[in-house]
Specification:
The chain has 14 helices and no strands. The chain is mostly helical. Mean pLDDT is about 85; it is low at about 1-10.
Length: about 260
Amino acid sequence: IYNAGVLVRHYPTQPVEERTARNRVILKRMVEEVRGGKRAPNARLHYNVAMFANQDGDLQTAATEFSLAIGASRDPLDILIYRKFRSAALIGLNRFGDAVLEAEAIISQEPEGRIGWDVLQEVAHAKGQWEASLVYFDIACTKRPAPLAVDRPVERESHTKARASAACLALGRYDRAVSLAREALDAHPDDALSKDALKRALEAQALRGRFDRAMGLAVEYARDGDTDRTGAALLALPPGSESDPRVKALLSHLRGLKT
C-alpha cells in the first residue's frame, strides 16, 4: 500500500495481497487515463508506478518513473524520498555514476543529513571500493538521521553497519568487522544481512593465521561458487601464504571466474 490516493478506500478487513492486487488495477486505470488525456500526470502517480515496478523487479521502469516523480514534485521531502528510492534502483542496475549523482543531489538538499552518504557507501560497496566505503560510512555516522518519512531504521542502524563490516573484513580488519556486525545485529536481531555479516566476520576472525583450516574452507567455498566467502578465507591466511602453490592455483581459478 503506497498511498491513500491509490487505495481510494482501505478495506482494512481485506488481506494485504488482495488490497495490493486491487491497487494495481486502480493504478493501471489511472495510467491509462493519463495516456488518454483524461487525467493530468503528477509526482505521486509516477511514484506509485515506480514502487510497483520496483516490487516486480523492473528496476529500469522504476528508475525512469522515480525520475519523472522528481521532476514533477515541488515538495522537498517528497523529492528526498524519490531520490533515495531512485538511487537504490540505479545501484541495482549497476548505474553507479547516476547513483552518485543522486547522492550528490541529496547531499546538496540535505547537507547535514546522512542519506546521501549512505548512498555513496552503498555504491562504493557494490564496486568493491572498501576504503571509500568505510570513509563514507564514518562520515554518515556524524550526520543526523533522515526525516521520519524517509528514515528506515533497519537500513540506518543495521544495513550500513553490515556493509561496513564486510569492508573491514575485505581489508583484514577482523576485530572492527566483528564489532560492527554485532552492533548491526543488536539493533535488529532478525535482520538476515546482519546475521550473515556477523557469521562471516566471526569465521574469518577464528581462521586468522591458521593456514590449513583457512585454505580448506577457501577451496570448499570456491567449489560452491561463493566468491565472497572464498575471499574472506584467503584473507585469513598467514602473511606470506600467497607464495604457496595451492593459494596461487586458487587465485588463478578465481580470476578466471571474473573474466
